[in-house]
């Protein structure tokens, strides 16, 4: 780093020189600007104060299954930002859902036919996720949202960053992040409603069916086509509710990317026990055999990337200068390539950089949706300034697509 | 006269709306900013444009070579040095009277000795609830700064303009800050115009009609307070005071033309049975 | 296309206020602004030379939740950039914006706030103008829904929004900058570009930069650009307030 080198080179002019760490604190804006725009004579590349290139993400690592008392868990580290996520599954009886009996006609009338269709295809294609993808679309998925089957909660733990004091109510940031995760879970439809349903299969009174009592799961899979009629009597008795608790144990900028990656990794790790409705006891019974537990089959792999914009002119909001309108801005942009750069888009900002920038961009992309390998944007968010327009957003989507590949590998290896 | 120009934040003032005399420097009122246009060619000096930061009606004063914005008229009063206000004493401390200018703002300070001819012996003994007509001396800097009032011109030691000091008797009416500003404008310019100044003829009309009843005294504070007293009114003093208050609050609520204002005065005086 | 209706300064006690109804999304927002006000002792004022902007969103038809914190954050982040917090009398003081959702479809748990966002932003802008808070420029915003067939619906009703594949909110400054873009649901960048063009036409109407005939037609469908509609609301109010001055001979 340039200032570090400069400080080392001059051994003892104590009165006026500052070590880089103090310069960084006293003049944060000038410090970052000095790194990003080195003098042209020095031939140094533009680099951030943390040593990264503008579009470089921090070293990311993920670890799953470390919490033994949860159904699924993950720890994701994004540089110094660390998020822990635990998924706990609980059973919600349909009798306990106030709106269940009211809304029941809709799912009941649609699900038997839906299941019938599914069974027909399943008998040929088995339970392959891809075929289900098309069959299971539509109304069925609204159950997740209608009955709040996914409950994410994010907390910024005490001491994760200066300013988080014990006993404080959830900060606006924590609440806002919880909401963003919930909305993203809904809008990406990551979790399939079918994975969360606990069915009751009434026994067929035919003699040969009696022995198959309580083997719903097996029957689900193996039901021959002739028994399709049975499916009409199938009934949802309960749901799994997934409580997704995220704790940011260390916050050094960009909490959303870390939290979302942790949720994704934890859900990929989540196993639900086999559960069925026991008529005799009138309760849901779970199997304790680990081999019978199944993983969730998630839809796609949406991955988020956050960026922020650092403006060269710290007082741009204050200086009495005519703000160029959008047309002029484009021309200016072209002219900056030759001369001095006015702004930098920084990927995966750390806490220091977040404090110095106002404009935020968050892109969530997925390449697995529909399985075509195309980059599909699940969420695109930008606010807080006017530096980023169509052209810049296009570049950012491409960077996010690249990031998707990297993070996919990390998540698959953990 | 050019058509009225309404500006929104970010709008630039076209040059034809600016006073054309170039001899004196142009005065910019609140809400206007002088912005420099960064020129692409560094050799030419940057040009300047004046742009608005509020949504307002542009008003130019060619005599003073000033241009200002008339923004939302009925907003909360924010003290500005030089404003005349009617303040109410809240309590007093050894050096200061603590006064309420608006109920929303912290109390303003009025020095015990900032009255005309006041010494330690002769200073007015004001009690809680008493009214003073005062000028804003300073508003301090930054958050939590104290507003200071005065009833004398510090340079001359006189109560200038006349009438600054304790207000005794009479009654205070609340009006909007917009109407208060118009009333001050109307009363400060003595031009005998047919339609009044700032579209207000109500005070002239009341003055004429109530001359027989002994006339009245009025003080208008920028903070939306109007003090009215008919000390010479005898029996009808209270009635006349209330009538003036009613006229002002009706004009405040409804936009009335000068003719309507005259009609209103006549109607209210008749209703209150005050002979004119 | 029925345009939005708005009124300035409906509340007499607040420094500035505005009410805003958007018939097509069914949203009805009442907003108030108090500025500049003294904030209770804040030692942690991060930028002592600037004003502190606070935004509160109060759902009137549904219980409050974490969703409001999120939308408050977005509105605050965007407005902070436009409010000239260093003007005289504003530094270290507060600009408090309160937006109440008084009518229309409520936003449930985990639902997106996107359909309401343009109405909230417009209300905040009008209330700021009514309070004479200095701003560097104005803006206009709109929400668009794209359904499975790729059809773009302007300002969708809650029902249309629920069936849409993706939802997009855009805000453009009076100078044509893209101030805010919030999109959700699966879509491709090409779709986003189309929606962006359409949104620009809705907000500004001017289509200087697009040469193809398709978008020019859309301009006619959308009627008066939003930017102009908002300006008219403000101009009407000022005309009313200063009738004595403007109508004077």
TrEMBL record, chain A:
Domain spans labelled Exoribonuclease phosphorolytic: 56-96, 127-272
Annotated Acidic residues bias: 133-143
Polar residues: compositionally biased ranges: 101-114
GO cellular component: cytoplasmic exosome (RNase complex); nuclear exosome (RNase complex); nucleolus; ribosome
Residue segments, region Disordered: 101-143
Keyword presence, Nucleus: yes
GO molecular function terms listed in the Swiss-Prot or TrEMBL record: mRNA 3'-UTR AU-rich region binding
Main location: cytoplasm
Keywords from the named record: Cytoplasm, Exosome, Nucleus, Ribonucleoprotein, Ribosomal protein, RNA-binding, rRNA processing
SUPFAM superfamilies in the cross-refs: Ribonuclease PH domain 2-like, Ribosomal protein S5 domain 2-like
GO biological process: exonucleolytic trimming to generate mature 3'-end of 5.8S rRNA from tricistronic rRNA transcript (SSU-rRNA, 5.8S rRNA, LSU-rRNA); nuclear mRNA surveillance; nuclear polyadenylation-dependent rRNA catabolic process; rRNA catabolic process; TRAMP-dependent tRNA surveillance pathway; U1 snRNA 3'-end processing; U4 snRNA 3'-end processing; U5 snRNA 3'-end processing
Gene3D superfamilies cross-referenced by the UniProt entry: GHMP Kinase, N-terminal domain
Subcellular location: Cytoplasm; Nucleus, Nucleolus
PANTHER family per UniProt: EXOSOME COMPLEX COMPONENT RRP43, EXOSOME COMPLEX EXONUCLEASE RIBOSOMAL RNA PROCESSING PROTEIN
Family as reported in the entry's similarity comment: Belongs to the RNase PH family.
Protein name in UniProt: Ribosomal RNA-processing protein 43
Biological source species: Aspergillus coremiiformis
UniProt lineage: Eukaryota, Fungi, Dikarya, Ascomycota, Pezizomycotina
Automatic annotation (TrEMBL), chain B:
Gene3D superfamilies the UniProt entry points to: K Homology domain, type 1 (3.30.1370.10), Nucleic acid-binding proteins (2.40.50.140)
Major site of localization recorded for this protein: nucleus
A biological process from GO: poly(A)-dependent snoRNA 3'-end processing
Assigned keywords, A-Z: Exosome, RNA-binding
Coiled-coil spans in chain: none
GO CC annotation: cytoplasmic exosome (RNase complex); nuclear exosome (RNase complex)
GO MF annotation, one: RNA binding
Protein name: K Homology domain-containing protein
Species whose genome carries this gene: Aspergillus coremiiformis
UniProtKB/TrEMBL annotation, chain C:
Organism whose genome encodes this protein: Aspergillus coremiiformis
Principal localisation: nucleus
This protein's record includes keyword Nucleus: yes
GO cellular component: cytoplasmic exosome (RNase complex); nuclear exosome (RNase complex); nucleolus
Cellular compartment(s): Nucleus
Keywords: Exosome, Nucleus, rRNA processing
Protein name: Exosome complex subunit Rrp46
GO-annotated molecular function: RNA binding
Magnesium is among the record's keywords: no
Taxonomy, superkingdom: Eukaryota
Region of interest (Disordered), ranges: 1-20
One Gene Ontology term from the biological process aspect of the record: rRNA catabolic process
Ranges of Polar residues composition bias in the record: 1-10
